[in-house]
Amino acid sequence: MKLFFLIPFAAATVFAGAPAMKCDALAARPFGDDVKIQSASLVAAKGNLPEHCDVRGVIFPEAQFALKIPTQWNDRFQMVGNGGTAGTISMGAVDGAVRKGFASVSTDTGHDAKKEELATFARESPENPNARRKFLDFAYLSVHETAVLAKKMITAYYGAAPKYSYWVGCSTGGRQGMQEAQRYPDDFDGLVIGAPGLYNTGNNVRRMWLAHSQLGDAELPVTKLPLLAKKIYEKCDPADGLKDGVIEDPRQCKFDARRDLPICLSADGPECFTAAQAEGIYKIHSGVRNSYGQFLFPGEPVGAESLWNDNVLGPAKTVLPRAISQLKYFFLDPSPGDNWTYTQFNFDTDPPRMMRNGSIVNAMNTDLAPLKKRGGKIVHYSGWADQQVNPMPGIDYYNAVSKRLGETETRDFYRLFMVPGMFHCSGGPGCSSADWLEATMNWVEKGMAPETILGSHMEGGKATRTRPLCNYPAIAKYKGSGSIEEAANFSCVAP
Fold it and tell me: Same structural domain for residues 113 and 144?
């Protein structure tokens, strides 16, 4: 019997020619008045990082970038995205791409997070004259300008342009990728877009809602999260027909905290929830509404409650300070000032104040026809148990594109994969480990549109479970026999 092994796509081809110029010569080469090359040096191979030309520079006014160009090149360019409010170069992701033979670049999007934490880089003041430009750079501009510059430098170095260009990013990086697809469809041939915060203003309204839902008697102690998660999984895990520790599609389970949780009959206790706590949980799951009952943003899909301690509970948790900062310096127009805080957010009057700048940061334009026309491809993935970026706006966006361009026409260039049980970008009880880039490259370069992508649940570096990740709206269904830990025993079916 012959055994066939899949060669990783990115390593399958290597550019045959030698670089057309010395690495340090890039520093002296002009690339435009707005570009300053600070250094260009050839770095010897070390560990598993191959020999490469390391170029550092800045694009006016303050967008720092790092480009690494391997001597042994796979003929391709990969740009990698950022997280949070950026402000750092994603060097680990750049190095990962270089190990696979890509020329790769990252930008800090125009500000230094150590000097200007969270969204303070957009605070307008005499000491920060570039504030508005830095806001635009964060929103979309620096990524585009860095991509264009990087390809010029790669072409100069090798004497040949990249054959294919790819974007890879999750969270803020997912939003950045969507901005590229919508505003600059010529920049990339294939885009891996993970958990995109494409509706940034809505996500910040959501974070205000989460914080408000925990005020006063409704505040939920972190110690009750295991009980909450247990009750939710008891009700929702079997809803897909298989009790396996993963909620396949949270929309199939109508969990109501006021009805489905044990309510304390007298004093608060560790094995029950007060009526106020249950009401707060219900508000989190049911979605954001203003005082007129107008729906503003989807509720949290069930399944991520075990991570609410770093995202939902209490005023000092991970993402709330970021949301407060973005509202103060990005979105609320006019700015409410340095002393504004989340308890002052008004769900009736503040969302309209966010529209002007929100239209710049949000990546919600559904006209992807230019990307489709030039042959670009999108592989979009999100976790159903994402505790930081609610996945529903991404689904709504995909459906809106399908409605605008046609379902079949959209599937020709844009596919969405929802990952059951995956937290933000990775992790969780589901099979969140998948080669999204390889699937995208196969589609771009071989015309192999991904119907399913193999997902794995990793523990200690080993896959303990595999499942097919299905092209939305299909879901994975157990065939009825064989191990539930093996993908071969599942098929993707209509929900």
Answer: yes
